[in-house]
Prior knowledge:
Rossmann fold; single chain; alpha/beta; 8 strands
Amino acid sequence: xxxxxxxxxxxxxxxxxTLFASIPWGIPLAFGSTTEIAFSxxxxxxxxxTHARAKTPTKxxxxxxxxxxxxxxxxxxxxxxxxxxxxxxxxVDQRSGGRKWGHPNKTVDAMGHSASxxxxxxxxxxxxxxAIDQRYTAIIAVGSSYSASLNFLLASENPHRLTAGASxxxxxxxxDKDRVKRxxxxxxxxxxxxxxxxxxEEQRVGEVLSLVxxxxxxxxxxxxxxHGASTLRADVNPNGYRKNLEHFKEFLTTVAPR
Length: 258
């Protein structure tokens, strides 16, 4: 028979075991922390990502998808800004990508090759499902270059699951050259669109938005900008990143207030 002290210790061990067993794998315990997770894409593939939490508890998250030849580290200088603004973030290594920013793309490495742009769509779908499973109530999806185009598909197909969306330098990057503009025309949620300051960037965005007649899709024309979400990085866009970042954060806090 256990002594009172032993009974207390045993009960404490059981309570701690129950607590930790109830925490989903990959979810950090502390707010303001960062951890690597893996989730299942819509087709069952394993996808790697970095989950970063705001300094205070929140039910808001921004899903971050990178550009071609890239990886989740495209967002390394950006996620702290979003976390400070009160958003958790999930920066994803999609299966179409590569080594950039001094880091590998772990999803590509695990698959053994980089897939086509269109083949990465299940990764975006899986990230959205993961966020819903974690009981986030405000979910904003952000795409960069090719994933900015895929993000229009995600938004058009999930108006009741996504809170808002954003595309940095979208274009008709797929074999069907009308696929993205058709999806953009069906977007019903608040949506932010921007691109680099070059004429070719503006032309691609104009084509994508050519069928849009909804006021919920907002286009921001940057005075100083570069391709993709890198326009928010100081090392890539030193003259314009701060203004672009503040404008984007204003959109986020408008669609998902504190």
